[in-house]
Amino acid sequence: GISLVKGYHDIRECHAIDYNKDNISFCSRNLRKDVVFKQDNASELNFPKKHFDVILSVESSHCYLDRYDDFFKEVRRIMKDDGTFLYTDVYHTEKLANSTYEIIKDNFDIIYKEDSTYNAHLSCVEMSRALAPINSEPYGWYRALFEEKAEVYRQRLGVFKFYVLKNKESV
């Protein structure tokens, strides 16, 4: 996600984190050289207070449900007072999406909220179709993954939410 954003905006400093060192190694070797890829823990980020203007989190926070509160506190800590948090994730149940919403509204001002489940479904269908003519690996695996995700979204077994958030002054 960050490489795409960096391609469209003039960003002075850009960091991308992942807990998995293999993911960081892959990204460092294969993606943009003007992005600092770093292994870090999203609930204990190693950045100074009020450092970032924009924070982007794409489909990752569901991996640390047991540390949601810590993650959102860290985002608030490292985001400048007038900063923006762009947050999107997939939730396996509407109940989980709703409980996450409660945490979000307690910590941030919600500027924009969208249920993007239908768009996620269409995107997965399109990716699956685009990969269909390619029979070599790893494309078959990716195609199967997109087909599976498309079906999950179609049946609303999972929901996909997108938020634009600002720091709450009073929290």
Explain how this protein is built.
The protein has 171 residues and is α/β, with parallel strands linked by helices. It contains 6 helices and 6 strands, in the order αβαββαβαβααβ. The strands form 2 sheets. It has a 4-stranded mixed beta sheet. The chain has a two-stranded parallel sheet with strand order 1-2.
Bulk shape: globular
Q: Measure the end-to-end span.
A: 29 Å
Mean pLDDT: 83
Strand fraction band? 25-35%
Low-confidence stretches: none
How do the strands line up in the largest sheet?
A: 3-4-6-5
Helix percent band: 40-55%
Beta strand count: 6
Largest sheet, strands/sense/barrel: 4 strands, mixed
Q: Helical element count?
A: 6
* C-alpha-based Rg, rounded: 17 Å
Output the structural class. alpha/beta
Brief digest:
With 171 residues, the protein is of the alpha/beta class. It has six helices and six strands; from the N terminus they run H-E-H-E-E-H-E-H-E-H-H-E. It is 43% helix and 26% strand.
Provide key terms for this protein.
6 helices; 6 strands; 171 residues; alpha/beta; 4-stranded mixed sheet; two-stranded parallel sheet
Structural topology:
Elements: H1 2-8, E1 15-18, H2 21-30, E2 36-39, E3 52-58, H3 68-78, E4 79-91, H4 94-107, E5 108-115, H5 117-131, H6 139-154, E6 159-167
Helix pairs in contact: 3-4, 5-6
